[in-house]
Structures are given as structure tokens and as C-alpha cells.
Amino acid sequence: MTDKELAVLAQKLSEEVAEKLREFHVCRLNLSESEVSQAPHLFGVLTDLGEGDIRKGIEAFRENNRCVKKMRERGEKTALAAWLCWITLLVGGAASALWLGFKSLLHLQQKIG
Fold first, then answer.
1. Directed axis angle between helix 54-112 and helix 39-49, to 10°?
2. Residue 86 above 90 pLDDT?
3. What's the mean pLDDT in 39-56?
4. Is residue 47 predicted with pLDDT exceeding 70?
5. Which of 14, 19, 18 is nearest to 6 (CA)?
6. C-alpha to C-alpha distance for 63 and 50, rounded to whole angstroms
7. CB atoms near residue 45 (< 10 Å)
8. Average confidence (pLDDT) over 69-74
9. What is the mean pLDDT of residues 63-92?
10. Higher model confidence: residue 25 or residue 58?
11. How many angstroms from the chain centroid is the CA of residue 4?
12. Which of 39, 37, 72 minimizes the C-alpha distance to 54?
């Protein structure tokens, strides 16, 4: 066999082995094909986050998630406080307007009567 024939044979053999490995490998996470295709990207991001060490990347990712969770909780509390302040201002303004109107009517009635 020539080198060219051996290269073609090796390529076919490696393709068949790869296909058999894909058939044999069972993913236990019930991921779709599109989700499985994103796994290399995820591992690359984690490796980059850990500056070359995927374990450090995973720990940094977890720490980032904790931080984001705390920020969301604080944001929700701040938003609630902001809404309560807004409602208080609206109710207070409406009550002041009603009181001033009522007071003006009492003053007008005293002038007339």
C-alpha cells in the first residue's frame, strides 16, 4: 500500500471509531444535541475564568453566582423600598391637597357666614 492509501484508510478508520464512540457514549444529563454542542464553549469559559485551571474557574463561577444572587436580593429590597416611598409620596400629596382644599372651604365659609 502506498502512503496515500494508508492515509485514506487511517482517516476512514478514525471516522468509524469516532462514530462508534458517539454511539457508545451515553449522556446522563438528558441534554439535547444543541445543548451538548455548547459544552466545549462552557469548559473554555470556565478555563478562561480560572486562568487556565478549570477547577479555579468553577470556583470563581460559583463565587460570581453568589455575588449576583446577593445583588439581586438587595435590588429587590431596594425596589420595594422605592415603591413604598413613591406610594407614600402620592398618598401624602393627595392627602395634603385634600386638606388644603378642605381648609380653604372652611376659610371661605367663615368669610361668607
1. 90
2. yes
3. 91
4. yes
5. 14
6. 12
7. 13
8. 96
9. 95
10. 58
11. 52
12. 39
For the whole model, what pTM was predicted? 0.47
How many degrees, rounded to 5, is the angle at CA 72 between CA 68 and CA 74? 115
CA distance 15 to 88: 70
DSSP, collapsed to helix, strand or coil, labels residue 91 as helix
* Burial classification of residue 49, based on how many CB atoms lie within 10 Å of its CB (0-12 exposed, 13-18 middle, 19 or more buried): middle
CB-side neighbour CA atoms (13 Å) of 55: 0
Residue type, 55: R
Query: Which pLDDT score, from 0 to 100, does residue 25 have?
Result: 64
pLDDT score of 93: 94
Q: How many whole angstroms separate alpha carbon 7 and alpha carbon 9?
A: 5
Q: Output the nine-digit C-alpha cell for 81.
A: 423600598
For the chain, what's the residue count? 113
